[in-house]
């Protein structure tokens, strides 16, 4: 049984999320309050009409962050002072006492989604649900885009260590969320210390070109001095950056300074495959057979896949990860699908929605491979039984405005995705263009 519990996040206590929204959400609220429609019971759903070009699956991410943000969606005096500039007094007073009191169901964070998957169902009055649209979409669209890209990178890496190091390539707060999403998707660590503090993501770091360049005198560069300083401070298990000058000389100097027990060397430029082979051979010849090779520098899932045959021990990924590797948003939308039990739907060209509240099942073969996703009306019997390998995808997240006790943690969500990647049909892990890895069937038999 799901027991409701109040959300609490002492890390950001008192920080309102109420203005992380668009102005028209509140003007529509004002109009609804004025014409008496604000308190009609409604169902909203979040879904993606399609996957980003070239993708075969998406990963739901950001749910835990969303639940934290929901509790902080409160209009205090500073927030009311802003909205009072364009809202009438009645609406301002309504916002003063706003608390979401409805229900939310959703796919588990870390689960897959496909075109049309109703990954979040929000139910309550129109007034209390409509003003959450921007907050919900901004979190889910960003985090799901990053997690989806990261999962492809993790699959391409084939079990090798992955470090997220993209903080300097995105907004400072987006960097924290990206680190969390990458960890959820299977990355092992992040360079971002705020992500380590806020989300308990393991942190890691290597070394900087600036430190090597710092050790320059009137007689020229002194790479050995830089390496000695780093090893003296951090021990021989550290990772030395060997490509500031000549990489062959850098490797030779690194082993001479640290000895054959050197923890690792990092290559950040050049033809990484060719260089990794050369460096591995050189390290082995110098007796540093256990020294790891870390590569970084404009890596994405395709570059990582191309390095699968090379002697690379770990990857550091930055820009491509925090920008969704070409798909910086998941393209999710938040649509009203039911009003007082009446199905409603948008019919705009290329932007149509399916009316009525929905549930979703995933059908799995006895071997564990996913066969299809089935979406059906919430008030109807499930079209596929548990005996036939079907499991419900939507779980309770919020009841009467409070997060249920069983809402998944980041570590639990990480485990969900790890298990899920094993259950995808093999073609779903391919990086080439193709159809969705899993067909989505609506209860009437249509596919989307």
UniProtKB/TrEMBL annotation:
CDD domains: NAPRTase_A. Residues 19-141 form the Nicotinate phosphoribosyltransferase N-terminal domain. Gene3D superfamilies: Aldolase class I, nicotinate phosphoribosyltransferase. InterPro entries: Aldolase_TIM (IPR013785), N/Namide_PRibTrfase (IPR041525), NAPRTase_N (IPR040727), Nic_PRibTrfase-Fam (IPR007229), Nic_PRibTrfase_pncB (IPR006405), Nicotinate_pribotase-like_C (IPR036068). Residues 162-337 form the Nicotinate/nicotinamide phosphoribosyltransferase domain. Pathway: Cofactor biosynthesis; NAD(+) biosynthesis; nicotinate D-ribonucleotide from nicotinate: step 1/1. It comes from the Bacteria. Its EC number is 6.3.4.21. It catalyses: 5-phospho-alpha-D-ribose 1-diphosphate + nicotinate + ATP + H2O = nicotinate beta-D-ribonucleotide + ADP + phosphate + diphosphate. Pfam families: NAPRTase, NAPRTase_N. GO terms for cellular component: cytosol. Keywords: Glycosyltransferase, Ligase, Phosphoprotein, Pyridine nucleotide biosynthesis, Transferase. Catalyzes the first step in the biosynthesis of NAD from nicotinic acid, the ATP-dependent synthesis of beta-nicotinate D-ribonucleotide from nicotinate and 5-phospho-D-ribose 1-phosphate. PANTHER family: NICOTINATE PHOSPHORIBOSYLTRANSFERASE (PTHR11098), NICOTINATE PHOSPHORIBOSYLTRANSFERASE PNCB1 (PTHR11098:SF8). This is Nicotinate phosphoribosyltransferase. It comes from Rhodococcus erythropolis (strain PR4 / NBRC 100887). The lineage of its organism: Bacteria, Bacillati, Actinomycetota, Actinomycetes, Mycobacteriales.
